[in-house]
């Protein structure tokens, strides 16, 4: 009888232990539905890209009008000189007359053709120009046989506000048939170059005019 009782007790203990083990395994493997679905794993954020370098400023193009130097053969025809400069025929003068003396030998120049013609007795020269700074070169040479010494041709002229009084070509050039160039820096503000001529003794005269942009 005692053996049967002990057997029953052993079976009961075994069942209790087995049930406990099953319950423990279930607790470890069954998901906890009350906690909701597992939180998603956040993806690691990509590293911030380095900022692009600022563009290098591009200089604004100079929109100033490109100016080609002007060369005018006062009193004469158009031609090309030894430096490749194209000289325009006589133009731009108000009043006066022209004369050519191609037979004369002109010194103090490498381009004597300029001084073998002249415009004389004019009152004004006008040339349209973009506003800006220029160098105006005035070419003179005394070639009239009626002038035999200093003081026999004297006149004044004004180049865009720059006054030249009592100008004597003979004196400036150092004698007859010698070239002389007067360079005048000017600033144009009204869209044109104006040169006025005023006689004093005999008539004003000129052999050529050049206009260059100031550097």
Describe this structure as you would to a colleague:
- The chain is α+β, with helices and mostly antiparallel strands and about 220 residues long.
- It has a domain at about 65-155.
- The chain is about 15% helix and about 35% strand.
- It has two helices and 14 strands.
- It has helices spanning about 1-30, 170-175, and strands spanning about 70-75, 80, 85, 95, 95-100, 115-120, 125-130, 130-140, 155-160, 160-165, 180-190, 190-200, 205, 210-215.
- The strands form four sheets. The protein has a five-stranded antiparallel beta sheet with strand order 4-7-12-9-10.
- Strand 9 and strand 10 (about 160-165) form a beta hairpin.
- The protein is globular, with a radius of gyration of 52 Å.
- The N and C termini lie far apart (about 135 Å).
- Mean pLDDT is about 80; it is low at about 1-65.
Helix content: 10-25%
- What is the radius of gyration? 52 Å
Low-confidence runs (pLDDT<50, min 5 residues)? 1-64
Largest sheet: 5 strands, antiparallel
Share in β-strands: 25-35%
**Element string (H = helix, E = strand):** HEEEEEEEEEEHEEEE
Secondary-structure class? alpha+beta
Average of pLDDT? 80
Brief descriptors of the model:
single chain, 215 residues, alpha+beta, four-stranded antiparallel β-sheet, disordered N terminus
Summed up:
This protein has about 220 residues and is α+β, with helices and mostly antiparallel strands.
């Amino acid at each position: 009888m005692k053996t049967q009782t002990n057997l029953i007790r052993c079976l009961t203990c075994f069942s209790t232990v087995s049930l406990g083990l099953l319950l423990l395994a279930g607790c470890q493997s069954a998901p906890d539905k009350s906690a909701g679905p597992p939180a998603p794993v956040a993806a690691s954020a990509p590293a911030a890209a380095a900022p692009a370098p600022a563009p290098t400023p591009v200089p604004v193009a100079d929109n100033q009008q490109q100016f080609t130097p002007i060369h005018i053969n006062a009193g004469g025809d158009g031609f090309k000189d030894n430096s490749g400069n194209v000289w325009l025929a006589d133009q731009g003068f108000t009043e006066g007359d022209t004369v050519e003396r191609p037979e004369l030998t002109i010194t103090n120049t490498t381009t004597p053709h300029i001084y073998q013609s002249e415009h004389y007795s004019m009152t004004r020269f006008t040339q349209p120009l973009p506003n800006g700074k220029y160098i105006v070169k005035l070419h003179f040479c005394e070639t009239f046989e009626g002038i035999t010494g200093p003081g026999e041709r004297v006149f004044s002229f004004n180049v865009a506000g720059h006054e030249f009084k009592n100008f004597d070509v003979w004196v400036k050039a150092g004698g007859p048939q010698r070239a002389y160039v007067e360079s005048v820096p000017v600033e144009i503000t009204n869209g044109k170059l104006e040169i006025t001529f005023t006689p004093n003794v005999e008539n004003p005269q000129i052999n050529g005019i050049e206009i260059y942009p100031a550097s």
